[in-house]
Write a structure and sequence with these properties.
Strand content: under 5%
Structural class: mainly alpha
Radius of gyration: 18 Å
Helix content: 40-55%
Oligomer: single chain
């Protein structure tokens, strides 16, 4: 089989497996391909971790730890096109319902290199993002991160990593009134809606810091339908005050499933 045909076959296999897993999960409550999958609310869990809630991850002390050079970018591009493009699209443009957009200025500003490495290595439970750590060594994963960084020259964001000081009950009302339209009533994303990523799972919320959440809610995720929500923003979907944003984050952390 020709190399191009092999790559195409691999891409189709990944997409087919992901879609099949999602269908089984939605209609039969079966776990998705990631072995650490946490079930949706209302679906019995066979293992530990049934209790809700997800504490914030400790902030990474260094936001940029992967050196970017032409050699690393070339290796990373080849690996991305072979392994990642089927779900995340060409140059990380994303595919709605399958894989989120990575080529986003605000996302790249808020995400540390360590965050990207952990996500690629361990995957994201309950989604089509499978763990690649068993197939790709540390050098190859860093090469993918280097390629992702080559898309846009974005300085790391200064994240506000204070503990959350919000009212979860008030945050629930705001989330259901505004956020659920895209992210789903339980934050399951594509499993509940057609245009928003999943933000309600423990697997996501335990992997991100409070500063990361604050930054993306305030500034939005550029290049996507996730617009800014900060009060005073000229392109805000809804003008939320700082306390309202704190309340939403408190609700997400308390109700994570």
């Amino acid at each position: 089989m020709e190399p191009q045909a092999k790559r195409l076959f691999a891409h189709l296999a990944v997409v087919a497996a992901g879609l099949a897993a999602m269908v089984l999960s939605i209609f039969y409550g079966l776990p998705m391909c990631n072995p650490d999958y946490q079930h949706r609310p209302g679906v019995a869990s066979s293992g530990a971790g049934g209790a809700r809630g997800a504490p914030a991850r400790a902030p990474d002390t260094v936001m940029r730890s992967v050196g970017v050079n032409s050699e690393r970018i070339a290796v990373g591009q080849a690996l991305f096109n072979e392994r990642c493009i089927a779900c995340h699209g060409k140059e990380g443009s994303g595919k709605i319902g399958i894989g989120p957009r990575l080529n986003s200025k605000t996302f790249l500003a808020a995400a540390s290199d360590a965050f990207l490495i952990r996500t690629i290595t361990k995957g994201r439970a309950g989604t089509t993002m499978v763990p690649w750590g068993a197939q790709l060594d540390a050098g190859k994963i860093k090469a993918i991160v280097g390629y992702i960084r080559s898309w846009q020259q974005v300085a790391p964001a200064k994240l506000d990593e204070r503990p959350v000081a919000g009212n979860a009950a008030a945050g629930r009302d705001t989330f259901r009134g505004i956020c659920a339209a895209c992210h789903g009533r339980t934050g399951a994303g594509y499993m509940e809606t057609a245009n928003g990523t999943g933000i309600g799972r423990k697997a996501f919320l335990s992997a991100v810091t409070n500063g990361y959440l604050r930054y993306l809610v305030n500034h939005g995720k550029s290049g996507t339908k996730m617009k800014p929500f900060a009060k005073g923003s000229k392109v805000a979907v809804a003008n939320l005050g700082k306390q309202e944003i704190e309340n939403v984050i408190a609700y997400l952390r308390q109700s994570a499933w």
